[in-house]
């Protein structure tokens, strides 16, 4: 497990950035430490650490799945992560267009709204 935890933390930092991970680690408590370990080892140390597909492709898959399952809260975080994974705005809109066709226009529409807002913030044009 230590290898998955170490590799998971390294991939998490590479994708989300040190500042995000540092904030998450500082906010960790006794209550959620087991959960944080689980996602670091499984999501980041197993799935994201796999070299089966690129980080760019994982970004697009993750964003599409978050939108399709209406788990909108993490979309801004994963939009910000595209700066580190190489997924472009064009990649993201293509992924959300797939969401519109296969999972519903309202889900894609809301994801696009969140993406536009996050991109504007990233570019210093936030409202």
Automatic annotation (TrEMBL):
Gene Ontology MF terms in the entry: peroxiredoxin activity
Lineage top rank: taxon: Bacteria
Gene3D superfamilies for this protein: AhpD-like (1.20.1290.10)
Pfam families attached to this UniProt entry: CMD
Ranges where the Carboxymuconolactone decarboxylase-like domain occurs: 35-116
Family annotation (NCBIfam families): decarb_PcaC
Name of this chain's protein: Carboxymuconolactone decarboxylase family protein
